[in-house]
Design goal:
2 copies of one chain form a homodimer. The first copy, chain A, is mainly alpha-helical. Chain A has 2 domains: 75 residues, Arc Repressor Mutant, subunit A (Orthogonal Bundle), CATH 1.10.10; 159 residues, GntR ligand-binding domain-like (Four Helix Bundle (Hemerythrin (Met), subunit A)), CATH 1.20.120. Helices cover 73% and strands 3% of the residues of chain A. A two-stranded antiparallel ribbon of chain A has the order 1-2. In chain A, α2 packs across α4 and α10 runs antiparallel to α11. Chain A is elongated and about 70 Å long. Chain A starts with a helix and ends in an 8-residue tail after the last helix. At the A-B interface, α2, α4, α5, α6 and α9 of A face α2, α4, α5, α6 and α9 of B. Chain B binds a DNA duplex through α3 and α4.
DNA sequence: CAAGTAAATTGGTAAGACCAATTCATTGAT
DNA sequence: ATCAATGAATTGGTCTTACCAATTTACTTG
């Protein structure tokens, strides 16, 4: 009885609608392109009013789960990472701690991807990574292009893992990462010594993949991240001191 | 004129409501914790009906932009990546034909989380992980309870990272894997040697966290996964042979 | 059979009504 | 004067009904 009561308290109309979609999508009963029951019919089926159904469905549209066509119907959407754009913009308008946390997820994905890349990368993958390494080196003085090359270097590594789950998750964070890369370059790339250290770090990462050594690649990539963290830390110190520190060490 | 027409065509009621919130949040006119104009008043202010306003606001709630309290009002929320859990599950569910691949993503998250756990776990975290290790050992002969203890052991490690991004992604994948019954394939083993190896592997993982050694923890966890893979491989061989192999090695 | 028109279907939006939860104002007791 | 209880007001939650806009389907005509 208590169990039944709890179940009722949790499954209000709104939740029933959400569950209807989640269950069917995850179970595969509703696939990309499938048409959903018409609103009026579905509202009746779920014993809710149409406005409530529409509220929930509007939410699912904005989360990218559904596509609606007036006069035609509602369809299951193909996942589209662009829906995350507003979310990340919202994050950026607030404090930055969420972004630092997303970097943890980024590292997780990249370090696993680079291990897989050591096993799975083909000639085209290696050529692409190498090419972006070259572009990265050539665009060190241009924050925009350099940031892009840096990002693409990393994304090529993830792509070389040939893991759709990893590339999908990485793609979801892509926009945020791109902004981060550009921002970082603006604040850290004026010292030739720093530039050299960074170029070397990227090169070591690439060579580890070529050498097909997962542990080394993982370690090199983490070292590369650690350098980035250190540079950011120094950059902050520099900012707060307000002095153009000529001497790093 | 054309410009004005285009502007009108784009700014329907729904878009006006979205813009109202986006503009004010991004400009800082509405900050975390600020109360929003009441629904009826805002609907009038924006020249839309209340149901339409509610549709949009429901969306913004589900995207994590707003918090609502019945009887009190609607407030600007603090960014929280947990709202994206369903989105990630949705994304990954569309790659469901390669579940082994999702296991790679799960491994990525766990290995990064265990590194963070070595730095961030508090006493309560360690006690929880240790407790689930104990339960896991006690329930080795029960597939249901043993499976659950195994899962909770791992989830406690991820929780001990105190990273919302990682725990969110882990949760999204866990839900997917649960529905696919992948984890149920790990059957209980009756060979005492195998049992000992498994228990030892879990214990080593736990001790690495206690020792606060990220590299060792990462390595131990990967070793543990490799053992699991090998056992699964043998399980499949056994299944297809249809022989109760008394002698494993 | 093809093209055009009308009807039906489906999504888009609103007004009005009523219920549920919280907050604020008023009243009564100490 | 202060505090607690009660009632009213406010705000969100949900529904019915009605009508408009866009698309699809059915029917009619050449």
């Amino acid at each position: 009885m208590n169990e039944g009561l709890e179940s009722d308290a949790r499954q209000n109309g709104s939740d029933r609608v959400v569950s209807y979609f989640k269950d069917r999508i995850l179970k595969g009963d509703l696939k990309v392109g499938d048409r959903v029951m018409p609103e009026r019919e579905l509202a009746q089926h779920l014993d809710v009013g149409r406005p409530l159904l529409r509220e929930v469905m509007k939410s699912l549209v904005m989360l990218g789960f559904l596509n609606v066509r007036q006069g035609s119907g509602t369809y299951i959407a193909k996942a589209d990472i662009r829906v995350l754009s507003d979310f990340f913009t919202f994050c950026l308008s607030q404090e930055q701690d969420v972004l630092e946390d997303v970097m943890q997820a980024r590292m997780a994905i990249e370090c696993q991807a680079i291990r897989l890349a050591c096993e799975r990368a083909n000639e085209a993958d290696l050529a692409r990574i190498g090419q972006w390494l070259g572009t990265l080196i050539d665009t060190l003085t241009d924050p925009e292009a350099g940031g892009r090359a840096d990002f693409m270097f990393h994304q090529s590594i993830v792509a070389a893992s040939h893991s759709r789950a990893l590339t999908t998750l990485y793609g979801a964070m892509a926009e945020l990462l791109q902004r981060s890369h550009v921002q970082r370059r603006v604040t850290t790339y004026r010292n030739p010594e720093i530039v050299r250290v960074l170029v070397d770090a990227h090169r070591e990462v690439f060579l580890s993949i070529v050498a097909k050594d997962p542990d080394q690649a993982d370690r090199r990539l983490r070292d590369h991240f650690a350098i980035g963290d250190e540079l950011r830390r120094r950059s902050l110190i520099e900012t707060y001191r307000g002095a153009p520190a000529k001497q790093i060490n």
